[in-house]
Design a protein that fits this description.
Layout (H helix, E strand, L loop, with lengths): L5 H14 L3 H13 L3 H14 L5 H15 L1
Helix pairs in contact: 1-2, 2-3, 3-4
């Protein structure tokens, strides 16, 4: 992801989530989809994170709100 190889990152994050359903991976999937020009799909992953993690820490909640706003524009 950090190197801009979003297609590869998407596959890696999907595989990781299939192995272990860690909620933070949903944010990574959403962010990657947004970078790939698929903001609606990104928003769906952000919503899934909200359902999976009722009380995220303050930093994660702030990032999630920022990413959600970006995907809506």
């Amino acid at each position: 992801f950090e190197s801009g190889r979003y297609e590869l990152a998407l596959g890696s994050f999907q595989a990781a989530y299939q192995r272990r359903q860690m909620p933070w991976l949903l944010i990574n999937l959403g962010r990657t989809l947004h970078r790939l020009g698929r903001p609606r799909e990104a928003l769906a992953y952000y919503d899934r994170f909200r359902q999976a993690e009722a009380r995220p820490d303050a930093e994660t909640a702030a990032r999630l709100e920022k990413y959600t706003a970006q995907a809506k524009t």
